[in-house]
Amino acid sequence: MTIAAGRYLSAGVSWDDAGPYLALRAPEGTSRQVRLDAGTVLSYRILPGDDGALRHCLGSVKVQDRYTRIAEPCPVHSAAERGYQCGSCFARDDWRLVHNVHRSGIAPPGLKLYLDQPHWLYIATFADGTSKVGTAADGRKRLRLVEQGAVAARYVARADDGRVVRILEDLVTAEAGLVQAVRAGTKAAALAQPLAEADLDRINSRHAARVRELLTGLDISGFAVEAETFHRPDQARAVLGASGVVAYPLDPGTGEHAMVIEAMVGAAALVTVEGSDTPFLADLARLKGRRLHLGSYSTRLPALQTALF
User: Fold this and answer.
1) Do residues 221 and 279 share a domain?
2) What CA–CA distance (Å, rounded) separates 198 from 53?
3) What are phi and psi of 283, to 5 degrees?
4) Which residues pair with 238 in a beta bridge?
5) What's the burial of 74, exposed, middle or buried (CB within 10 Å: 0-12/13-18/19+)?
6) More confident residue, 97 or 136
7) CA-based Rg of the chain, rounded to a whole angstrom?
8) What is the C-alpha to C-alpha distance for residues 287 and 292, in angstroms, rounded to an integer?
9) Considering the domain boundaries, does residue 72 fall inside one?
10) pLDDT at residue 232 in the model
11) Sheet (strand 131-137) strand order
């Protein structure tokens, strides 16, 4: 499957029930989803801004209710200053408030509607055994973990709303020492040399049991301890079971590339490249905030890497 040519701003890799896709925005502001199914040829060149910037503002988000978020493009097409936003778009963004709402109490009406739904607390473990605590709204309970690239995960609590679940998340970090974020690059690199699946499941099970024990003794209302296992997409097994895999030797976020998607875990793609029999793991999270041109390009493997293969 070959993707039609064009210039786009990439909002990164997302998943829906059909699988992974690259979220793109055309110059006129229209959105497009490019499926990243097995066999897709992803061929592109990264386009720097006039000032040489590689990371561009993705605009702001207005939360309407628990189901609807409206993405508003950056009106001046700025370079990103903070994460994937310029200062003005960051100030306008509703979603930035969600992470601190349980402390500040500040939320616009639409965000309040989003928060007023059940949320889940989960423990996710990645390919090298690194584990984190996180939250997911009820409607994206599974897809949240799929997008995170979890290799093993368990849900440990169901909270009445998004405020309570974030109180629990902070408490688990403070008491159990589990972080709330793991870099995309770390997750992708770990997939090149994953621990055995049984070991990863044991690591996750141990963390989850400890957290459930911690939560059981809390004097906090508005949640129930749960014991439910996350089931990852079938294509994850193709990534974890691939032999001879090495990290993609170039930065997908600069230059030009052509790769064939074989399978994905989160934003990490198992890919092949013309001229090499080696399977690579590419961190496609590097495309978020990049302007790119989809067209006829190629991956030029470094000379040393080519010799090794």
Assistant:
1) no
2) 43
3) -90, 95
4) none
5) buried
6) 136
7) 20
8) 8
9) yes
10) 96
11) 131-137, 119-125, 152-159, 223-229
pLDDT tens for each residue of 12-66: 999 999 999 999 998 877 889 999 999 999 999 999 987 788 999 999 999 988 8
Contact 153, 202 (CB under 8 A): no
Q: For the residues 120-141, what does the mean pLDDT come to?
A: 97
CA separation for the pair 285, 15 (Å, rounded): 13
Is 105 inside any structural domain? no
Handedness of CA 199, 205, 210, 215 (dihedral sign): positive
Note down the domain range covering 202.
118-232
Task: Please name the residue that has the structure tokens 């210039």.
Answer: 7
Residue 20 and residue 58 in one domain = yes
Residues 222 and 187 in one domain: yes
| Matching residue, tokens 């399977």 | 279
Greatest Cα-to-Cα distance within the chain, rounded to the nearest angstrom: 62
Kindly state whether residue 110 falls inside one of the protein's structural domains. no
Whether residue 146 is found in the same domain as residue 221: yes
Question: With contact defined as beta carbons under 8 Å apart, do 251 and 46 qualify?
Answer: no
64's tokens:
């309407």
- Is 129 within the bounds of a domain? yes
